[in-house]
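From the shared-data thread, chain only:
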Amino acid sequence: MTSLRDAAMNSKAWPFEEARRVLKRYEKKDPEKGHVLFETGYGPSGLPHIGTFGEVARTTMIRRAFEIISDIPTRLLCFSDDMDGMRKVPENVPNQELLKANIQKPLTAVPDPFEQFDSFGGHNNAMLRRFLDTFGFEYEFASATDYYKAGRFDAMLLRAAEKYDEIMAIMLKSLREERQQTYSCFLPIHPETGRVLYVPMKQVDAKEGTITFDDEDGREWTLPVTGGNVKLQWKPDFGMRWAALDVDFEMYGKDHSTNTPIYDGICRVLGGRAPEHFTYELFLDANGEKISKSKGNGLSIDEWLTYAATESLSYFMYLKPKTAKRLSWDVIPKMVDEYHQQLRAYPSQDAAKQLDNPVWHIHGGDVPESRMVVPFSMLLNLASVAGAADKDGLWGFIRRYAPEASPETHPDLDQAAGFAVRYFNDFVAPERKFRLPSDQERAAMEDLVKRLKELPDQDLHQTFEDPSDALQTMVFAVGKDHGFENLRDWFQALYEVLLGASQGPRFGGFIALYGVQETVALIEKGLAGDLVA
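Structure, as tokens:
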């Protein structure tokens, strides 16, 4: 552990850099609460998207890194702001009229439009927990509604009443003049309608711990700030929660970054110590727009897991968190193959390199062996030319390419084969556009067919030590012999004529996987125009 800890203290991997910042908080003495608290926040105003999952995945990576460099116990609290009022109806859920009738009520008081849970907030909380459990995260789930109603925030809410003027001074500086006239950090829950009210305060009585206000009909009410009768506006709520729970670390998206001084300031006014923060760049959909829970644009977690294993999504989350990421279907195959490349590299790396490898952070140091002897991108191309209806249709080719492989010994490959067929049918097949070859391309392809037919009629592994490399060399030679100044144009021609796409696999590996005779037949179809037809 000592050598590992030394390597971790010098690692430039971003989870270790963040973990060292958290450790620095306690370089003089350990936390009085007996642990370091990592927190993630989630607003269940709509179905949870991948960005929400990303916060938990990335925070978990930092937590694991911290546990290497420190013996202080840790906790991860996933906090749901489910007492927030529903400000607008999400576009991607059923029973829109039902939701419209409950606008402004706390999310845990809004009926579930899916009719599965006690409330809309409860439904979205359950979805999030299911996703997190799928990935095996260790976390504790917390509901704002439960915390407010059980009195777990009462002491801090009473202090907020005492510090009302100081909190308001912080908030008012950030608001437009018109908004300043009606703003209050306290949001009462109407005793009759149950709606969250955005109304100015007539009086805040710190001694009695009450607020007085007029509702939207002009009736005056006085409510205690405790017991779930009142909640805080979301920005003050951030700082209050940090102070109440003594949070040590929380990350959030770039869209929150300008609010950091507000969150920190309110936390300090309430007697707390602001946590360490980490601001990540936003996730964008295929059109470059920010993904949104209410719009439902961008990939959902369920959609990603329909076409790839969980580890590929964790790998996507690890990469460059400070860089905006486009989240669309075409990133999935790349993430799967890159993840397995890192897995294969891991065993031969020294301790320092292993700590910099994304797979260490994905698996918390317990890194499995990759059994993906065929890349996912190659499986997609195989699905294309083989016309496979399911993964069993691919295994005949896989076994010939890798005789030692089977679904039992290579479960990750077996799973990927099923994903590849599904992905091909849903995304690749509808977009394929085959073309006829040019005269130069036709002559080269005819030559390639001639050379493939001249290969010995036996198992490629008996002929070549590495069939993929030998066949790739052959394809290169054909391109050079037929005057392709840029060999990329030659390979692009093969992809467009034979696969209906502008990009494709390492072609020698494809021939080795698909089979020499099968590739000959495929090229002859392309030359005859059968694929275009």
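The CA atoms of residues 271 and 460 lie 73 Å apart.
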